[in-house]
Amino acid sequence: MRPTDGSAREKKANGPHPTVLVIDGDPQVRRLLHVAFERIGWRVIASDSGQLGVSEAAFARPDAVLLDIGLPDMDGREVILRIREWSRIPIIALSEQDGPEAKIQTLDAGADDFVTKPFHVGELLARLRAVGRRSQQPGDRSEVSCGSLRIDLAARAVTVAGRGIHLTPIEYAVLRCLAQNVGKVVTQQHLLREVWGPEGQRYTKHLRVHMTHLRQKLAGAGVEKGRLRTEPRVGYCLGN
Known about the structure:
By secondary structure, the chain is of the alpha/beta class. The chain contains nine helices and twelve strands.
């Protein structure tokens, strides 16, 4: 489903009105939220699937996301994880599930709040204002370019001089973390936590092996020498 307001992006570019992205498979919920948000001066973009919602989040750069967990094509928590790879935009999850496990999993995935359906529109708007006050989004970037190397964080695509290269999931996760901190030294401990989780310290040798393979693949694709640097006894840096 395309934006319910066909000129939403152009209007956002030409005015100060905030934009909300509604990702929900239920047309009645989308219609309800569209009316509620337009009434308070917000622009509304609506998607009826997770895949389209991720694309809209990257392309339209909304100010907030309202996301149904029970989407028809994918788990809403996967949508949250995809968006969180490159953005700290406020996300409020909507769900008919009200058990503690569903809430824990959703918040752990990166949602800022969890609202059970059916909801009161006034309460939802108040919760959105609250997470908006807490949220800071300095330098959200869905694409990072370093010389001939380009990492599209929203599409999970890596190209060198326009040609795609294949990375394993771990290699991509390592490169993604470096790209999110481009120009900065990322410590080995930080990489281990980001890629392997709280028990990441057990994978120190694995990190070194994956880093060697990643460096070889980038060099073989034509990435400039020295673009991916090792800082002895500290960590790694992707130079911009």
